[in-house]
Amino acid sequence: MRTVKLYFLILFLSLFGVVRAQQTDDIGTETVTVVKPYSPSVSDAFKIKLDPVINDSIELQKKPIEYVIFSVPVASTFTPAKAKAARVEKRPPPTLYNSYASVGLGNFNNAIVDFYTSRKVGRDENLFDVGLTHFSSRGDIDSTPLDTDFYNTNLDLSFAKKDRDYDWSIGLGLGHQLYNWYGLESGAFTDTQIEGIDELQNYFNAEANAQLTVEDSFFKNGKLLVRRFWDALESGENRAVFKTELEIPISSELVNFKTKVDYVGGEFENASLNSTTNTAGIDYGHLIVGVNPSFVVLRDELTLHLGANLVYGTDLERSNGNFFIYPAITASYRLVEDQVIAYGGIEGDLNQNSYYDFVGENPFVSPTLEIQPTDQQYMGYAGLKGQLTTNIGYNVKGFYRAENRRPLFFLNPQNLFRDDEGGYNFGNSFQVFYDDIRTLGFFAEINVDINRNFTLGLNGEYFNYNTETDNPAWNLPEIQGSLFMDYQISDKWYAGANLFFVGEREDLQSVAAENTPPNEFVSNSITLDSFFDANAHLGYRFNDQLSVFAKVSNLANNNYERWSNFRVQGFQALAGVSYKFDF
Fold first, then answer.
1. Distance in angstroms (rounded) separating the CA atoms of residues 532 and 560
2. Are residues 532 and 491 in contact, defined by beta-carbon separation less than 8 angstroms?
3. What are phi and psi of 137, to 5 degrees?
4. pLDDT tens per residue across span 337-359
5. CA distances to 149, 300, 321, 337, 392 from 387, in Å
């Protein structure tokens, strides 16, 4: 025990001496120079295995355990809550009515009537449609002493049946038009002569048509039209047109066959006004039979139709005919998807003309016409169309057309040697003159959907004519264009407008002379001024059924000449009411 205490005493004295020496002695400074930098290294490490190997003479095997589950039915009283779909606000679908009627009245005693109804017949998709339209005017025009009344009434009946593999329809049309040859300037004739003029003309037509369309068949469709057209001066015309279209797949391509049979025939009671004697009437008859085979090539961006139009035309009155071969090639190519589409082609055909078509274009023709078909040798065209943006579409095109026997309208000569029943021989009616014409033209249009309620469209055309006879292209303008717009102002109000411009035209005035050929009649060429016309309409809907409307025409109040000596009515205003209903 004493030894231990001695050791602690010696250790305490030693430590006390060391501490005291550090407090009193100054050890100074010393510079240490490192000759070699420190380069530590890490020795290889060995990972301890998770499953050590046990060297045991006795290794125990795991005993497989089998579980047996006893299913016991347990009654559950939990009922999940039914989820409700979120509701989307939407407008109710518009109510559709099967009938529509509209009536309007305006100045110049103008009146319009429009009626339409469509009814289902039976349980199948069978529809029976009835349409009636009427437009008339009984106002006078100061520039002429003759009556200027007119009206146009049409009744259309049709029955259509749709099936899964085909659909067909038949129709019947009746029409009555009344016009006056009022194209006399005031002071041109004496009161006695004017009182002896019977300027009234009536046109009548009755037609039947049928159509058949077949799905998933080489026979695509067939159309038939039969028409009788006549007037109040013993003129009459029959027309029959039958067309079919076949489509036959060959390998991965398609071959189309279009056929047509077109007949027109009729008679005029009176001779041409280029003759001072009315000795014999005019009979005519023409038959055109055509086949148009074409080979269709469809590629990623290219659609190409390669074909020809084989036509045989015969003049039944003169018992002569000719065979024609026309090109029928069209193509379109998407340069930039829907933004830029290039298209073009070259086509030709033998086009049938008729008294009915001439009256539709110019109701003031005389019932003394020569009816001949037009030989359109070819029409070559090329253009671009597409969409600049999602709401702006465009179309520009240039073309060159070569036609033989193209019909042109110019005034009949004043022929006071004739005593025809009708009052059309005072230079107040039109004849048809056939000329060979080469036409260079350009067309451009743009359509803008400013928004879903406002649409705007503008188009313009330019023509340059070269005639075989070196005469002007009678009554054909070089420039024409139009603009239209529609605006849905609100749910109740809507409005629209259309404007059109027609450039200058040339016409011919002449006086018949006995024993003189027509080309030697005393005549002079006249220029009809260009004209601009603007029309607008405004409407208000009280509800889904009842609405009122107002229309104004010729806003500039310009009595321009649509045809030589035939001036139009000035400013016109008309108001009416429309009603939809179930009938």
1. 9
2. no
3. -150, 140
4. 889 999 999 999 999 999 999 99
5. 45, 19, 47, 9, 6
- Spatial neighbors of 484 by CB under 8 A, at least 6 apart, are 456, 457, 496, 497, 498, 499
Rounded to the nearest angstrom, the gap between the alpha carbon of residue 78 and the centroid of all alpha carbons in its chain is 63
pLDDT confidence band for 76 (50 / 70 / 90): low
Give the pairing of strands 200-214 and 430-451: unpaired
Distance CA 109, CA 204 (A): 23
Concatenate the DSSP letters of all residues of 514-542 into one string. Answer: TT--GGGSEEEEEEEPPEEEEEEEEEEES
* Residue ranges with strand state E in 416-521: 430-451, 454-467, 479-487, 493-502, 505-511
Cα(182)–Cα(145) distance, integer angstroms: 8
Q: C-alpha dihedral over 162, 163, 168, 170, to 10 degrees?
A: -50
Q: Taking a C-beta distance cutoff of 8 angstroms, is the pair 308, 292 a contact?
A: yes
Question: Dihedral sign, CA of 513, 514, 518, 519?
Answer: negative
Spatial contact of 343 and 385, defined as CB atoms under 8 Å apart: yes
Torsion of CA 367, 373, 377, 379, to 10 degrees: 60
Q: Which two tokens stand for residue 130?
A: 């009835």
Question: Which amino acid, residue 468?
Answer: E
Reported as type and span, the H/E element at residue 20 is helix 2-24
Amino acid letter for position 66: E
Six token digits for residue 422 = 């009708």
**Residue from 520, 518, 482, 484 nearest 500 by CA:** 482
Task: Tell whether pTM > 0.90.
Answer: no
CA dist 141 and 147 (Å) reads 8
The long-range contacts involving 384-388, CB below 8 angstroms and separated by at least 24 positions, are: 384/340, 384/341, 384/342, 384/343, 385/341, 385/343, 386/336, 386/338, 386/339, 386/340, 386/341, 387/338, 387/339, 388/339
How far apart (Å, rounded) are the C-alpha atoms in residues 28 and 158?
Answer: 128
CA distance 13 to 22: 15
Nearest to 242 by CA among 224, 255, 218, 220: 224
The answer to whether 388 and 339 have CB atoms below 8 angstroms apart is yes
Sequential DSSP letters for 392-420: EEEEEEEEEEEEEEEEEEEEPPB-TT---
Neighbours of 239 (CB within 10 A): 21
Can you give the pLDDT at residue 490?
Answer: 92
- Amino acid in the structure at residue 478: E
Is residue 91's pLDDT more than 90? no
Nearest to 282 by CA among 251, 317, 254: 317
For residue 51, the tally of other CB atoms under 10 A from its CB is 5
Instruction: Write the DSSP symbol of residue 426.
Output: B
Q: pLDDT tens-digit profile of 270-290?
A: 999 999 998 889 999 999 999
Which one, of 394, 522, 401, 404, lies nearest residue 456 by Cα? 394
Q: How many CB atoms lie within 10 A of CB 350?
A: 24
| Residue 424 banded pLDDT, cuts 50, 70, 90 | very high
Phi then psi dihedrals of residue 191, to 5 deg: -60, -35
Q: How far is CA 3 from the centre of its chain?
A: 128
